[in-house]
């Protein structure tokens, strides 16, 4: 469909408890984020993932009562 474009998959993986593989940091660099901002971006992603995990736990606890 898009013959003029080339695509590359860059994994952005964050585990349910906020763990990240080295490939995530490398993918952010390849996407063009400044190296000085990558730690802040990763911390923000981890924060959001942990909030989501806590919300899932709270929902599960409410249903198990």
Feature tags:
65 residues; mainly alpha; 2 helices; elongated
Quantity of strands, as a count: 0
Rg: 16 Å
Please summarize the sheet with the most strands: none
Nearest-integer average pLDDT = 90
Instruction: Enumerate the spans where pLDDT stays under 50 for 5 or more consecutive residues.
Output: none
User: How many independent structural domains?
Assistant: 1
Order of helices and strands: HH
Distance between the termini: 52 Å
Strand content: under 5%
Helix content: 55-70%
Gross geometry:
elongated
**How many separate helices?**
2
The computed structural class is mainly alpha
Short description:
The chain has helices spanning 22-30, 35-64. The chain is mainly α and 65 residues long.
What can you tell me about this protein's structure?
This protein has 65 residues and is an all-alpha fold. The chain has one domain (1-65). It contains 2 helices and no strands.
Which helices and strands appear, and what pairs or packs with what?
Blueprint: H1 22-30, H2 35-64
């Amino acid at each position: 469909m898009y013959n003029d474009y080339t695509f590359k998959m860059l994994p952005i993986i964050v585990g349910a408890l906020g763990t990240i593989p080295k490939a995530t940091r490398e993918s952010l660099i390849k996407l063009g984020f400044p190296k000085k901002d990558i730690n802040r971006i990763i911390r923000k992603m981890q924060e959001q993932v942990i909030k989501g995990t806590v919300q899932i736990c709270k929902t599960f606890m409410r249903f198990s009562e």
